[in-house]
Fold this sequence. Notes:
The structure is a single chain. By secondary structure, the protein is an alpha/beta fold. The chain has helices at residues 11-18, 34-47, 63-68, 95-104; strands at residues 6-7, 24-29, 53-58, 76-81, 84-90. It has a five-stranded mixed sheet. Strand 4 and strand 5 form a beta hairpin. The longest helix has 14 residues, at 34-47. The two termini are 21 Å apart.
Amino acid sequence: MSIIPTMIKSREQYEELISKQDPVMLYFSSQNCNVCHAVLPEVLELVEEYPVEVAQIKVDELPEIAGQSLVFTVPTILMMYEGREILRESRFIDFATLEKTLGLLQP
């Protein structure tokens, strides 16, 4: 089974997503970022085992959301839980930390 991230297309969709009580992973990327394209499949493979929704935000399409979220470099991963940020990984993604955080969210 392969996870397909939800593509965020509007501020309303973003606000609804981050206000959820369930875990949500936000993956900020750019169309021209080769690292972003290389890392995303690895991230999606990692989260397959965990109860987390994944959403992708392209910063070149929604720069106001990136600014509001204080995302200044890509790729950036924000883990949200109960409407709060619980993890932020930017540029060089630490997969061990990401997996540890996901493990803490297991029921």
